[in-house]
Amino acid sequence: MPNVLSDDEELLNGLGSEIMKPSRQGNHMARTVKRWVNKERATTADLKNVNIDGVHGPVNTESYISPGQLYSTDSGNLFHAGRILVVLVGLPATSKTLLSVAITRYTRWLGVRTKSFHFSEYKESAKNIPSDYFCVVPTSKEGVAFVEKLRMQMLNDILAFFNDLSGQLAIYDALNIRKIDRKNLETTFSEIGVKVLFIESIVSDQEIMNRNIALALESNDYKGLSTDEAIDEYMRRLSVNEPYYEMMTHDEELSYIKYINLGKQIIVKDNIHGYLVNKIVFFLMNLRQKKGCVYFARCGTSDKDNYIHDEELNEEGIHYSQVLKDFVLQRIKQKRQAKKNSDSLVEVIDGSHDEDLKTSLIVWTGPRKRTHDTALFFSKEGIKVQQRSELRQLNPGSIADLTDQQIMDKFPSEYKESLKDPYHFRFPRAESYHDLAVRMEPLLLEMEHTSKDILIIAHESTLRVLYGYLMACTCVELPNLNFTRDKLVEISFSPFCNTVELLNIPLTS
Amino acid sequence: MTTSFYDLECKDKKGESFKFDQLKGKVVLIVNVASKCGFTPQYKELEELYKKYQDKGFVILGFPCNQFGKQEPGSDEQITEFCQLNYGVTFPIMKKIDVNGSNADSVYNYLKSQKAGLLGFKGIKWNFEKFLVDSNGKVVQRFSSLTKPSSLDQEIQSLLSK
Q1: Tens of pLDDT, residues A456-496
Q2: Is there a catalytic annotation at residue A173?
Q3: How many independent structural domains does chain B possess?
Q4: Which of A364, A382, A446, A468 could join A478 via S-S bond, C-beta 3.0 to 4.6 A?
């Protein structure tokens, strides 16, 4: 029986090395600090208590650690990247808010302390709003003062985020259409060592334009107006700002990305460098407008629910598969019909792009028989089913198929440690949730890339990770999420946040 | 009453009749224009398109309209002078009209009935909305104010080659 080293002993001797005498000098292999700083105690999180994602939640908890985070540092900065300000550039309704929220979700998932600062939110909470506040150069004295005040508030909050809250990535969401505004931002933040990256969003595709304008008209800016009146008002605002729009060019000597027609084309200026910045670029290359939903379902049952054997479905499992297929297809049809009949212009536009289910729904399963066989009824309907190796369940290693009591008996010290940090703990020859999250990242990017409805049939462990990303959960919440067989989880997308709905699968019929 | 594009008629800037049957066999772009609009700089690109394809059978007609934000307040003479002086416009500018409402010009009533615009609405939403008509008199495309004239180059080229 090999000795089990404590954390401190392992750190002193270095991972994988022979045990050395404590008195030995100059051990350069040893890590000088623990891998995780300030772990937080686990608490239970129930799916039903939350139906809006946490992407706008605060990041100022000292002990905050993200699901996909590889390591932590005292300063909070990761990837040797220092601090970064992302500045969005573009006219109204060019998906700037969508971009800022998506980048926030993804980078937070990686562990970067990210926060978006939306001009529209500052305007919402202001008083005595002048009528020309939406102009980049307001005509009235009150308008000029108002816009300047909001800009100063935003700048001060961003500086506080960097300096007081150990923020690493701030996203500035406003028009920023003039060269002088961009130059000022670059100058202000360069002086304090913050790298500035501009992302210009351009929409010239009529279909995307229609949808974006419809979304914009649903904001508070246009409350009380009929749709016709709202469009006129929108065009008036656009008309006022259009003459001031200076598209980004090489001459400005700034780092920028042009994101055109929601990712159909991306132009990256050649002076962009740095691991984290390039990770953002890669993410943008995969980001697309979402029209469908993502659905999560467990697989059907087998006789022994055993990990070691790759079991087939039993009778109950086959029945579940049939019911699941009928329920999912019915739900998607229902939802699309509701879109066509909706009062919301966005929904009507989305509904008008309705397609045959065979081509607009895709089903992903894990590589194991139970998950794939649960999707057989979808295959019979002509719907594409793909086995994804990334959806392989968390590998339990030495504790495979053991009960909690058996784990306690056989691995008492490991069991105790696992309760302290269920997300990161790894049993012998097993994976941790963290390992699972890291290996699933390519799948997350692929989800961002598709605009179809997606149904994912998988083990609970993988569903937790996927849900955790889409709903911006913390790594404390993630291991405690519950996915039961009687529930279909539906996640809907909008530019500002994702929402979840739990649907009862009618298994008793 | 069934109307074809070529049955339409309007007044030119001098108040004289402009019959659309003279447009047969030509590709036509029709734009409601204004002198004090954020999109007014689109005149430059419209003129570039006109110069590039005029010899191949392409025509642009500009219809001044003061219905959106009071951005075309001048007289017909002032409008013509503005276009020529500021943008070197050589394509025809018609007499000022309404494009929406009970006084809407018959040309625009026809165009709006053929193609819906932004968000599916028939009404013209702002200055510099554009209709593209092929050489058979069919309204094939409608573009919002946001669409830059330079991005229409490909469409025009393919219609001219038919």
Answers
A1: 999 889 999 999 989 888 877 888 888 888 889 999 888 87
A2: yes
A3: 1
A4: A468
